[in-house]
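User: Can you help me understand a structure? I only have the sequence.
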Amino acid sequence: RPDLALQAKYRRLIGWRRAHPVLRRGSVQAPLHADAHVIVQLRRHGSTLALVALIDAAETRTLSLAWPRGLARPVLRDLRSGERLRMRAGRLELSVPPVGGRVLIGR
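Assistant: Let's start by predicting it. Here is the structure, written out as tokens:
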């Protein structure tokens, strides 16, 4: 019996990848954050940035990420929720829900 919820999640992820070339062809930068449970990776493709945060912890983690110097500071949009996140004093405050992640896109 197929797991329809899991199948729907994978279809959504594949749809995001098809809709946003940065998720397919973007260069991968050094992680903005990495610890035992969370990794935050930045990708670039042309003028588009993607921030991908993955977590395997059982609780939400809130991170304060230093944005790389010399890199444009876009307003980032969460692909799942539509929430818009802005930098404050060169930092990005990011909450990552448990056992999952977030994908944010900006220009």
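Now, to help you interpret it: The mean pLDDT is 95. The two ends are 42 Å apart (CA to CA). Let me know which part you'd like to focus on.
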